[in-house]
């Protein structure tokens, strides 16, 4: 069974490939916490920390993000004073984990071993992330390209060609990443299998993560 202390866990893939479905299911795993919305801010936060921004500036940045807006609407975002405490050590590997612990507690969820996030576009930042989170793990969600492209067109009016290109680029990155790293670090999840047999696929994912599935799932 895989090391349950390895993390964080990122769920990525082409847009409209089932990443939201997988996030909601992974949230049922014991010892894993993913926020109910996409963080989006992590690449910019890493860059700001590397530039040496002050804690006050980092807190102001986080308070300006769309993620903050979504969490505040849910009533689980920290006050500025609490956020400053969370950022006592602003290093991404420490501060993001601390923020996730605050959010999980605010959702009245149990303490976690590994935090994670579902932001599909993070697939383009995995190299940068691994330098900051050396023990990170990745779940790549892959959907039939025809259905993914059609879903992008229906949701956003994106042309089928643009949708196909987005799918191609994400699939290439997923293959390259899986080839470069250990099977313990990256796992492919196929949307069609997940939709058809969620219990079976989630049992495989839980085993890969080294955790159990909540009895309430």
Explain what this protein looks like in three dimensions.
The protein is of the alpha/beta class and 217 residues long. The chain is built from eleven helices and five strands. The protein has helices spanning 19-26, 42-50, 55-63, 66-73, 80-86, 92-106, 126-132, 145-156, 160-180, 191-196, 198-209, and strands at 9-13, 32-33, 114-118, 137-142, 186-190. Strands 2-3-1-4-5 form a five-stranded parallel β-sheet, with helices on both faces. Helix 8 crosses helix 9. The longest helix has 21 residues, at 160-180. The mean pLDDT is 94.
Global structural class: alpha/beta
Enumerate the strands of the largest sheet in spatial order, edge to edge or round the barrel: 2-3-1-4-5
The tally of strands reads: 5
Largest sheet: 5 strands, parallel
Helix content: 40-55%
Q: What best-fitting shape do the alpha-carbon axes yield? A: globular
| CA distance, first residue to last residue | 21 Å
Order of helices and strands: EHEHHHHHEHEHHEHH
Query: Which segments are poorly predicted (pLDDT under 50) over 5 or more consecutive residues?
Result: none
Total of DSSP H or I helical runs spanning 4+ residues? 11
**Residues in β-strands, percent:** 5-15%
| Mean of all residue-level pLDDT scores | 94
Radius of gyration: 17 Å
